[in-house]
Amino acid sequence: MAHVRIDYTHKRGDNYNPHERIQGVAGNGGGGWYRTEDQVLADLGTGLNSYFVKVGNVAADVIVARHEGRQYIKTQPDGYAPNNLLNLDEPPVHIVGYGG
Question: What residues does 50 pair with on adjacent strands?
Answer without folding.
Answer: 3
